[in-house]
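In the current project phase, the collection of sequences with tokenised folds has grown. A representative record is quoted in full directly below:
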Amino acid sequence: MIKSETFISKAKACESCHGRGFAKIMREWKISTEKKLSEIRVIYEKVSDELKQTKNVRKEKAQKLLEEATFNIDIVEKGKSVHNVEYSQELLTATYNILVEALNVIGSSYKPEAFLGLAKEIPTQCSNCHTGIEEINTQIFGLDFPHKKHLIEQKIQCSTCHSNVRKHGEFVASKHGCAVCHHKDIEKDCTFCHQLQTTIYEGGQLNGHRIPKDIMFEAEIECIGCHLDSRDQIYRPDKNKCVDCHEEEYGDIFLEWQNSVKDLIRSLKNTLTKRKKLSLPKEQQVLVLNIEKSLEKIELDGSSGIHNYSAIEEMLTNFQKTLESIGKNTSDEQTKIH
């Protein structure tokens, strides 16, 4: 026996030939295949239990089908899907069909959940590299975005959200484009998608910082109270919406609040940039990072403070004071050195 050593390749090895960004694709292949394997394993175990309990005369045939499914799963698990990800995922789809056939053979009443995610559902020019993309979830405009629901269930084309005209895979979708579908049903619970906005409006925790309820929420004003126009369509309101219920000057207050928050955000960003250049102690670095992440969420809210002006204004002001205090001593010391 010749002794040898097996080297484990890293994602960056892909980029030596395929270019930058391919390491991410490899990671997504692994995630996608593991998700599909998890689904198949659950179905496999259930089918196995069904075979153990059945007294059907065709049990032997079903058992052979189960063995074939076992073989396919072993190939994907031991062969490592990244070596041929498209074939691996086709094997798992075939395995699902084999397991369903085994159930039919013994007349089982168990109906496994549909195994969604076939390459044929995705344009060839995309699936050549992005095999399994339907299993990858990401965030868009601060909201969770499941590819499977859009690509496989709703049959939305990749080109609806991505373009190769200026840059490969550039994200070109807009909030308005998403709202065309997602805001069709005005009875739908807004909090299902808009969890960040709900936290800011109804009160809760934002990155560990407590947010009290907004005065409008305490007055039992629901989302559609401000976000429903005269045609009963969901929209982003402006200052004119305020005067539907309040005095005329409330339109100007709306703009004052937004401008105030925008100014605070600009000032805070400038201070953050300066503080990140300093050599801060570990605990202060963590604090700066927390403030930066909290600011990102406040911007993702999209209302420029309108959803809860008093809370957001106070939070941003406190962030600014905190940054000024934690950086002052370090800044003075570095000035003396230079």
The chain has a mean pLDDT of 87.
